[in-house]
Amino acid sequence: MVNRSLTVPEWLELTAEDRAQLEGESGPGSQMAMRVIVRMAVVQRAGRLMDIEAAHIDSSLYMGQATLDFAERLVALGAKVRVPSTLNVSGVDEAGWKAWPVPPEWAEKALRQMRAYQSMGCIPTWTCAPYQSEHRPHFGQQIAWGESNAIAFANSVIGARSERYPDLLDICAAITGRVPAVGLHLTEGRAGRVLIRLVGVPQAIQSSDLFYPVLGHILGKVSGEENPVVVGLEVKPSEDQLKSLGAAAASSGSVGLFHLVGITPEAPTLEDALQGQEPLITIEIGMPELRRALAELSTAEGSQLDMVVLGSPHFSLAEFQQLAALLPGKKKHPKLEFLVTSSRAMCLLAERAGHLAALKSFGSRVTVDTCILTTPMLPERVKLLMTNSAKYAYYAPGLLGTQVVFGSLEDCVNSAVAGHVVRERSLWEV
Amino acid sequence: MGSVIQAQILVPGSASGTLLVSHEPLSFWGGYDAASGEIIDRRHPLSGENGSGRVLALPFSRGSSTTTAVLLEAIRHGTAPAAILTTGGDTFFALAVIVAEEIYEKSLPILAIHENDFHTLSTGDEAELHEDGTVLIQAAG
User: Fold this and answer.
1) CATH architecture of the domain with range A307-418
2) Are A205 and B105 in contact (CB under 8 A)?
3) Which CATH number fits domain A16-185: 3.30.499, 2.30.29, 1.20.140, 1.25.40?
4) Does the ipTM exceed 0.85?
5) Within an 8 Å CB–CB cutoff, is residue A65 touching chain B?
6) Residues 80..109 of B with a Cβ closer than 8 Å to A: which?
């Protein structure tokens, strides 16, 4: 039998309102959520709780019976969110799942879980790129976000402040409006500690889309639980390049905040990024390290290919536009699948701009709400994937049992047309 | 010869089992199969090992924020480790167990140990975790 009584240590300061929630005065749902928040504050040795203004809920992912049990327990206890709370990807494309071999019993439970989160008052955005929606947070805003790529983007590119909220905790933060005051919420937790110097990386490489997920893959591997700072970038990356960097760094590692000196908002200078301290470690990254990381992102050898998949994190309007521009006059090879994953809102914009028509005539399909990693949608014959997403490349072998080839967007399109892997590597070769 | 380690208690409890140790962090999402307990991150040194019923020692959980959901499912399903030893930074494992206590009344101990102690652990050794946060290690063989 588990002991559920809660002893609040003296060093954890709770407000009268915190104690009221803990004692059940706002109902049993908020009481359970506050019990979890307070126990986590004890684990994290937070001295106090603090307010958040918004949340992004990754707990919406259906990961089996347990995540559904948790959501439905909160609903049964009457829990409602106290702050605007967007929803991350779900376990199923609500309107489109039947077009893929998703088991109906999975879909039924994933749909139940979607409804549970909506009934707690969350906003059905169903996207892992909420920072590219009207719910984008602002600089300095205290938020509780789940979804590792979204956390990295919100902290690093926008300068909003979120700890790395795991599934189950993000919703408790949203229900109580309170979080342990620790880590990336606090100025001192945002200092860069691992210094990465780019050495001898040509501008042509730095300007290419492929560079950013590869650099991100390295940042994740070398940073441990510390915040990395990069110096030596000579170009101004696009928002989607920064998005791919963050997603890669949060897949190969635990990066919740990165600083790019001269580019990201808390790093106008190296000294600002380090908050005046010495870095714990300095690492030089040049072309040999980048080539090695690029190679690591692929697991497949040979040129066989069953499917090209793009859109982790979810495709933005700019990415739809970039893809559509490559497609006129081309058709994907009939033997392989071509898929883009995005959100409903972004697809609507892409449709109005005419990009979806271009994708359709090329032979691409589009899935919304979810992605290939979070819903069992792939046909069984798909064993070899190609992608320009470091996140898909990192997780597909373990989660889906597929081999993966990592390449640029152009490589992905050219390979889809050819029906086998085609990669242009002249920039990267010695 | 046995050794005794004093740990910081993240989630209290007692347990014993054979150690499964990695110095590389692991994301349970894409890394731990809740249906079987197998470690399925093919880039991880423990790939192919089974964590069910073991005392799993990992420096911290990596990457994805879905680690907690996978561990909760493993606890529900009975494929979770018997206990987890981690270094100070990790909170994801503790969260999964705190929620498992709330909704299933099931638990497992999560203890944080010093990095120097962590480096003395080896796969195959027997570990005994006590309520007071002491960990007894008996070398294999």
Assistant:
1) 2-Layer Sandwich (3.30)
2) no
3) 3.30.499
4) yes
5) yes
6) 89, 91-92, 94-96, 98-99, 101-107
